[in-house]
Amino acid sequence: MRILVLTSSYLAPTYNEKIISQVRYINSFPDMYAELCNDCALYEIEQKIISKGYDCVFPAVVFDSSHHEKDPILFNATLYQILLYHKQEYIGSDLYTQLLLNDKALTGHRSGMGLPAAIITRILWEHRWPSALRLTEGVPYPVIVKPNTLSASVGITKESVAYSVDGAAEIIDRVFRQFPTLTEILLEHYLETGKEYTVSVTGNSPHVLICPTALEPVGNSFEIYSYDSKRMNINKRPIAYKKVSDPALAQRLSECGKKLAEGFALRDYSRFDILADEKQKLYLIDANTIPALGANYMYPYTSTGEVQIEQLLAILVAVFSKRTGISLPHFFLEALPSSIMKPLGF
Known about the structure:
- By secondary structure, this protein is an alpha+beta fold.
- Helix content is 35%, strand content 21%.
- Strand 1, helix 1 and strand 2 (33-38) form a beta-alpha-beta unit.
- Helix 2 (42-52) runs parallel beside helix 3.
């Protein structure tokens, strides 16, 4: 099998030692070849697809790397159009699903699990400011101010929480200035006492592996898991990944992850960020169609060593092969942990 792995060192970077080790793992098997292409321009990717005949593309790229970091295109839809134009099979969900889930407000609304929120459009904010300001009064405070259509926590900092309408207005102004092409900002009620969890879903119904994980503060209080936090070395981040200690809650999170993956018709892999309030009511705060294959993906298995992080991409390749009917060498499948492969239908 020939695999093209697309990564980026730009915004929402996916090029790192983990993905390099995952490519190296795949290439350790006969008849398996994975080519890593980092920060490739779209024309280079299209040329490769046309000329080299890949069986599979793994597009771990969120933004178009040809644009400046301060002015990102909201989602690299053109990449997926290229894949579709050339009938190229790839790991991940279809373009339309990814466009939907890249809109945080629509995701929360469609899921039925969103927190109270309001959308502030740039055009209303700039030209009908009093009307826009009234929208900010309709959400229970405190609120967290987020770019509505930027992935990977881009634009979210420790200063993104507002406790008053005036505070929210200052942050909205700042975010619109920071991202000139951004057209919408989401004001979402901020659960100060909420506990955060992430649920990774691997596979395709009915064969899925669901892994709930708790995010716990390293210090005395929970700190917003900002874009800068995500770019830190894992040992320096303000949160740590842990096993969900309450079995009943773990079961509810797993059921929620399965329902969301099916409801949004996601393919191959995904991850959902979920908040639980003091009464353990669950709220969806983000859905990831291109989650990073690192410490918080399949954590219950990688934390124990049952699955090596270098095997994660290989597992996704196996999931892809089952969905598409493209065959893989038996020795490649047999090298992957049976405790993982059995729930995935192998």
